[in-house]
Amino acid sequence: MRWIVENAFKPRYTFWTRANVSEVLPEPPSPLGWDVVWEGAAVAGWRDLFVQRLGMPDAELDPFRAEMIGIFGGYAYLGASLFRVWAGRTPGMTPTTIDEVYFGDHPDVPPYVAEDWHANARTSEVMGEWLAWATTDVTQAELQADREESLRIRAQRPDYRELSDAALLGYIVSLRPLYRRMFHQHINQSIGASIGPGILAQVCTAIGEPHWAMRLMSGLGGVDSAAPAYAMWRMSRMVCASSALTEIFDGGSAGLYDRLRGSSVADAGAFVEEFDIFIGEFGSRGANEWDLIARVWELEPDTALAAIDRMRFADDDASPIAENAARERERGELAEKVRTALAGDAESLGAFEVGLSSAATFNRGRERSKTAIIRVIHEGRMAACELGRRLAERGAIDDPTDIFMLFLDELEEVVAGNLVDVKDLVPPRREHRRYLASLEPPFIINGEAPPIVGWPAKGSRTVRGVAVGDTIAGVPGCPGRARGRARIVLTPTSASALEPGDVLVAPGTDPSWTPLFVPASAVVVDVGAALSHAVIVSRELGIPCVPSAVDATRRIPDGAIVEVDGDNGTVTILELPRSTAGE
Q: How much is the pTM?
């Protein structure tokens, strides 16, 4: 059976990790999603960035699938070996710098071992020039151009029903150069987002206030990944203010969109109008949104409405807009305190201002670049969905979503009329993807990847339990302390038990989780570090966050009372639920 080709073992690049990439591709990618979005598109853009802007020698990177990313056991991995080498060549950074960004204090990180080829003066020179740009550029002209192009593409969406099969396929393929260029920009912004926080951490530590660094990056405003939560909050207030809407929502989230559209009540009509505008702007977001197979909000609007349903139970004073404003005020006050502490030290004061500006610029830029490319990926998804609908209607495949189980070259043959037995290809691939999804991929691979026959089933690995008073250590994410009832939520669509004030405990998050942050008093995630999605959005919404709390979703019993300390990166068990305490 054909599946996505896995990386061959290379002695130079032996250290791989699921860190951060598990937010981007949490599931085994679909064949069509990998072929169209990643292989030769996003991966090529990543390679372009490292060679064209970051000074990595072309010969050090595989021309087809550069070692920034790999596929093992059907899952995507980041090339930690390559990132360590690059960090070691960058002025002011070391290989351990990259470890701190991706892993925090994860116990399984192998020690870095230097080799002669790791040093490269040319790369160091180019990175010095790049760092000068990253600490001075605030115009972001390229980023703005990408954003405007993504908005134009969405606004000018063709009527896919009117396009021929060949035209639909041609449109899907025509977007791949944009994925390449926009992913280049996204990684450029992501790397830039690590510079300012590092400077702020050094300055704040030097004046004896290390925790201020995180607070100086909170409440920035203009963080695109938080924007859906603000819009959903406003709609949740519409529901709270209307007895008619409340009655409709009380009927449950299943079929909610259809019930709203079918209602003759004026409030329902106004809500649907607002929600349709929301889908036009944010319909590309959802779980696993980097893969074409994802059922994002435009395709399954009830999932977005379910998040609004959770928000409507929160009091008005839980407004994320108000929380952001409070964090913004605090950031301004702290900045003035730092300036006062640095009075007379022109050099340190100058570094602080650079760090403050760079952190704001690139934290916004990272999320904006992601939003732009996700919006364009979605247009490819919608074209593929229409083509899949037609193929299923003709009997070429059993279900419209079967199209995502085909590789791009196979789909080209189908459209050309040269592959007539395509239906037989799909069932074993669907079954294989389900099997892969049932396994727990190693968080870290060091050496040759272990065969998947030895991977444990998800949830089968034994973990140590907790008692009252125990503390689970993660890393500092978003500052502040909060106490609440822990709710273990494994997918963003299974949060029906999450109530206002609860602590959201998740394996990891992507933008589809963002609405769940609003009613939560704090967020705890199994993996992630300073630049993870959970941290960035928590800072924007002003709630404590502890990432890299290893196995928190399995160690913390659902319903336990916990205290989350985002400044120190800890989660303390205050009370166990009765069923657990009595065992």
A: 0.93
